Amino acid sequence: MSARQLFTGVDVGTSGVKAVLIDSHGEVIAEAEASYPLATPRPGWTEQDPEDWWRRSAEVLGGICGKARELGGEVAGVGLTGQMHSSVFLDAADRVIRPALLWNDTRTAAECREIERRAGGVERLVGLTANLALEGFTAPKLLWLRNHEPEHYARLEHLLLAKDYLRFRLTGERATEVSDASGTLLFDVAARDWSREMLEALELDPSLLPRCHESPEVSGRLTAEAAAATGLAEGTPVVGGGGDQAAGAVGNGVVRPGQLCLALGTSGVAFAPLAEHKPEPEGRLHTFCHAVPGRWHAMGVMLSAAGAFQWFHDRLGAGADFQTLDREAAEIPAGAGGVMFLPYLVGERTPHNDPHARGVLTGLSLGTDRGALARAVLEGVAYGLRDCLELIRASGATNEDRALISGGGARSDLWCQIVADVLGIAVARLHETPGPAYGAALLAAVGLGRFADVDAACAGRDRVEREFEPRADQRELYEQGYARFRGLYSRLVDFFPEAVER
Fold this sequence. Notes:
Number of helices: 18
Number of domains: 2
Largest sheet: 7 strands, mixed
Helix content: 25-40%
Oligomer: single chain
């Protein structure tokens, strides 16, 4: 009797690694995770040791393989996902040169300006890569290494992204896939291949970059050494996988043009699949290849969403738990008693691309209590998501009047209702899934032929737990609130750099 065919997805996240095991119908049957440390050697710097990613991934894969054997099955294929943009530098012997620079590392402001200059200006840069030069992206990190650590740059032979370092340790192959490569600023997103023009403009050797696959394609097979470390069988196929946002969208069934998905995680995301390459002209939205061959996606990203409420809980919550803060916020009428919150605690991407922007609470009075502050934070994040949605609509990516919503913040009924009211659209909360690791597992199942394509794998995956309709009696109040939110940033934009310098 042949063994039961199972598939696993592995997510190399910022705080830890997570793996899921799914059966041939796409149902989750096991999960495993392990954490690792984050280093912040200077303010604004974030680094990790890629060896930690490998050690913890081997551990969780060992647990997944044990569960597969208990169920009378075997892992037929592996999909990979993880934090995007993070940079791993390897020497000629494939040894890690220095700790990886992560997606939320902000040391590269000067390198972003250098990239704009070398590319021939912002408009030309967007034309080549479909995106602006942002501090979190990969190319600025590569230039930072060249500018600030020339002794390390002199040893550099290969550049890999986080999940692709795990692929290298599993298969011995230096490879990536289109959705993650889209966030490097070295990729021709329209052509779904590395950009010769950008490499020439930045004077970078193409041999630094790994070969690039579509997300469901097999990119390598497990080596004997990796099999011994993980419990997987030697020769197990590993598919391309996807960046965390694209893989998460696959897991939520958000793969068809016209769909709209919101995420209330540490960061906030508005995500819309595209049938064709159509970047926002000013680059205020990210335009990346989707994990679906032949499709792209537009994405608005705010850096602090549920992370802003976590900050409020930790710093101003006075020991209250999240449920208490949520309940107190629900007791405050819409508008938070005139209190308004700008959620730019670590700068902002969409729509401002402003690393100097900072969080602001305004409208405080002697009568302002904790509940009003909590509600203002929830409303401020919703206004930030509306910024993203307005750009997505203006770009023509979607006219959908219903958005799927997921992420830790979406567990709050109050927050989902506020988002629906502020955006003026229905919000459908999805049943919780294991996140991007689940999408990566589905991509593995596609790559190994279990499903005909990604659409077939995702059919019926947008399982809704509850819907929140926008309330007509809140419309005018939140329209006025959104106008004030936009005006507050415009009044403070020139002040922010001075405040940051202090």
